[in-house]
Amino acid sequence: MTEITILIAYGLLVMITILLQVMGAMTQLSMGYIMSSRDDNRGTRGMVARIERALNNSLVAMTLFAPAVLILEVLNKTNATTLLAAQVFMIARIIYLPVYALGVPAVRTLAWLAGFIATAVLYLQAL
Prior knowledge:
The protein has helices at residues 3-28, 31-34, 46-74, 80-101, 105-126. By secondary structure, the chain is an all-alpha fold. Helix 1 (3-28) packs antiparallel against helix 3 (46-74), helix 1 (3-28) packs parallel to helix 4 and helix 3 (46-74) runs antiparallel to helix 4.
């Protein structure tokens, strides 16, 4: 597995998160509302709302992780450290989604922090 394949896998994880969020929203909101312009901005609750927040966080993480991986590839600076950092990022994000959805705050925060630090390592390796 390379940093690029991990980036691809993370993209797929984000897509799965989108599907989970949409399917959850359909259980709490009417199909008419889902298909509308959503001008009245109804919210979801509980696990569905947590999945939506996890999705938003996952998109932010993608905006940091993807450029770091692509920069390393363009500069031909991938190495054992960058691969390990990308693996840590991916494992952390895999843990992050279900623990956030289930409302496990401390583990969620630690998973987020591990992924964030791993991303920082990628940028430092690109210098």
